[in-house]
Amino acid sequence: MGLFVPPLKMGRRIRGQRKGRGSIFKSHTAKRDNPAQYRSADFAERNGFVKGVVRDIIHDPGRGAPLATVVFRDPYRYKLRKETFLAAEGIHTGQFIYCGKKANLTVGNVLPLASMPEGTIVCNVEEKFGDRGALARSSGNFATIIAHNSDTGRTRIKLPSGAKKVLPATCRATVGVVAGGGRIDKPILKAGRAYWKFKSKRNSWPTVRGVAMNPVDHPHGGGNHQHIGHPATVRRDTAHGAKVGLIAARRTGRLRGGAGNKDE
What we know:
By secondary structure, the chain is mainly β. It has helices at 15-20, 43-47, 191-199; strands at 50-58, 67-73, 80-86, 96-99, 110-112, 121-123, 143-149, 154-158, 164-168, 172-175, 233-234, 246-247. The chain has 3 helices and 12 strands; from the N terminus they run ααββββββββββαββ.
């Protein structure tokens, strides 16, 4: 007679587990335009500059910032290359955009960080040389160049979050601020606008609070009043069905005594 093994009892999958699989929670990318990224870093851009012209400024569904369609002449073949850049505040159709090490410091131009003086306002900054833009890309956002270190070939910048980051000085950035700023100043006011906003982004709205659920649906669910009932902090290696709340929190509670804006 074999050993009896009772069936494994497991709780219901919580929302975080369902989102991790993708499926209906993936980004809605069907109607979007091209990826907003720089030209591939070629010899012309690394050593001189290339000139392009802004043909159009377009809206990209699910993105707050407008995009600029910039047309370049291919340096190596007889053809035109159409690129889609993040539009900097103030650029217009018909404007020439210069990309490269020797381009002028003008709003909309793309230069390596090393070619820009300290204090320059930049956006769409590369994190690694050649990744074609990764930081400060949201509408109205910008980064600030703080300092250059010529010995190590690295540049320190201040990100929109206030954090400081050290990058290779060869990384490219656009001079200026991303267009479309002030977007979040206008209140949404009604659920219908939030519905259409997230319809073009991803399936992430409406969001039901954990304390409003039943115990089977969420670790914070249940009880005669809407309360968590235990500390909201959980370990980094918590089981997936219980990993909700303040995950591996370094600290909790209100920021007091100017700790929140301490300049590092």
